[in-house]
């Protein structure tokens, strides 16, 4: 029985950089831990869209009550990486209604105060 050939290591997207491969734009990816250790968000400045998965929803951050998640980490990620995007950036979440960075940014202190 032959062993499977080694798989190439996945490349992590460079934080804040978009790519162009074969004439196709690729969104910039960046790690956004907090909800889950391997969480990423994808941002395409040309489209004005960020795909946040379970990091940011309309109304607050993703769940952090699991053993592998961490509320201060997700807040740092949202504050330092997502809320720095232009206010008109459309936020497409892992589930639920879309929102914008501008609609969510004013609520950061509220989320911190409620602790989830």
Describe the structure.
- Helices cover 20% and strands 26% of the residues.
- It is of the alpha+beta class and 116 residues long.
- It has a domain at 45-114.
- The strands form three sheets. A five-stranded mixed sheet has the order 3-4-5-8-9. Strands 1-2 form a two-stranded antiparallel sheet.
- β8 and β9 form a beta hairpin.
Topology:
Blueprint: E1 19-21, E2 24-26, E3 28-31, E4 40-44, E5 49-53, E6 56-57, E7 60-61, H1 71-82, E8 90-93, E9 99-100, H2 101-104, H3 108-114
Parallel strand pairs: 5-8
Antiparallel strand pairs: 1-2, 3-4, 4-5, 6-7, 8-9
Shape field: globular
Average pLDDT reading: 80
The span between the termini is 51 Å
Secondary-structure element pattern, one letter each: EEEEEEEHEEHH
Q: What's the number of helices?
A: 3
Q: Which structural class is indicated by helix and strand composition?
A: alpha+beta
By DSSP, the count of extended strands is: 9
What low-confidence regions span 5 or more consecutive residues with pLDDT below 50? 7-22
Radius of gyration: 16 Å
The main pleated sheet reads as: 5 strands, mixed
Give the fraction of residues assigned to helices. Answer: 10-25%
Strand content: 25-35%
Spatial order of the strands forming the largest sheet: 3-4-5-8-9
């Amino acid at each position: 029985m032959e062993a499977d050939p080694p798989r190439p290591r996945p490349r992590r997207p460079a934080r804040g950089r978009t790519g162009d491969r074969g004439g196709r734009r690729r969104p910039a990816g960046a790690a956004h831990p907090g909800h889950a250790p391997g969480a990423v968000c994808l941002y395409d400045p040309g489209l004005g869209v960020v795909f946040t998965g379970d990091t940011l929803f309309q109304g607050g951050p993703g769940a952090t009550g699991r053993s592998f998640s961490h509320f201060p980490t997700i807040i740092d990620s949202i504050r330092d990486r997502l809320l720095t995007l232009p206010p008109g950036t459309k936020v497409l979440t892992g589930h639920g209604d879309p929102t914008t960075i501008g609609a969510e940014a004013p609520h950061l202190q509220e989320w911190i105060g409620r602790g989830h």
